[in-house]
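Q: Predict the bound structure with nicotinamide-adenine-dinucleotide.
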Amino acid sequence: MGESTLQDKVIMMTGAGRGLGRAMALALAREGAKLSLIDIDGEELQAVAGEVQKIGGADTVIPLGADVCDPESSATAVHYTVKNFGRLDVLFNNAALGPQAVAPNPYKNPPKFWELDPFTFIRMVNVNTAGPQLMAAAAVPHMIQNSWGRVINITTALDAMCVPGMGAYGPSKAALEAQTAIMARDLDGTGVTANVLIPGGPANTRMIPDATGIPRDALIQPEEMQAPAVWLASEASDNYSGKRFIAGYWHQGIEKASAPCAWPQLGKQAILPETIQR
Ligand SMILES: NC(=O)c1ccc[n+]([C@@H]2O[C@H](COP(=O)([O-])OP(=O)(O)OC[C@H]3O[C@@H](n4cnc5c(N)ncnc54)[C@H](O)[C@@H]3O)[C@@H](O)[C@H]2O)c1
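A: Predicted complex:
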């Protein structure tokens, strides 16, 4: 990638206050993007906004405290971003609640699905699935208007979606994966693309607690998300939509790091009347 690949781009990053969101935001800032950073945790968000300011200057970042799954605050965040920067080009749906929201150590002591607190389950689906949908629905019309844009949804490894202990988290991410495939098809021909980006395994963020026993340096480091995030936000990825990209394989090339998102090969199993076109 050349210098300042994202010079004219306005990019929203949800869950930007720490972890993968912070790492991606800093890389996007280094490529010249203007950033609208969203998080429910205002204190951490301000700290990351300060780091971005040091990279790009005071007028290159707005931190917006918002809950992505609140219809009003997600729409207001998009509105305020467009009002402030005059446009919106890229949305990273990165904010999420992790598996430990359902139990203290779901990796070593996985709760059974019937033990899950019903309100926690619903909150997880709201944040992890409804949040990205609300953000994208508010953001995409501004992109279609410019005949260019990106929706990048952070899901998780396909096998992590159906492992015991991932009750709530797994289904919430599987739903977002399926929604990304629908987004890509709905956006076909608009100049806006929708893709999935994942680390590819457990990553070194607060989402993976020390209690898992995995040494921190054996985890995927947040910085590994940076190169694919910059590429996905740039014009270099124009011809890619409906794909999933694995950051941990990025250094092995796009062919190795990408696959169709969701499960298109399994979708062919439905028995449909001849009158219905896929
Ligand atoms: N860490 C991993 O091993 C891993 C693996 C696969 C996928 N992911 C995905 O990567 C993304 C980033 O996760 P992370 O590891 O950096 O986790 P993290 O917990 O460090 O960061 C998540 C961020 O989202 C914010 N957030 C949570 N709920 C929110 C809401 N309702 N509205 C706005 N912001 C909210 C949090 O405050 C936090 O800053 C998530 O989508 C996660 O599911 C992580």
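A: The longest strand covers residues 192-198.
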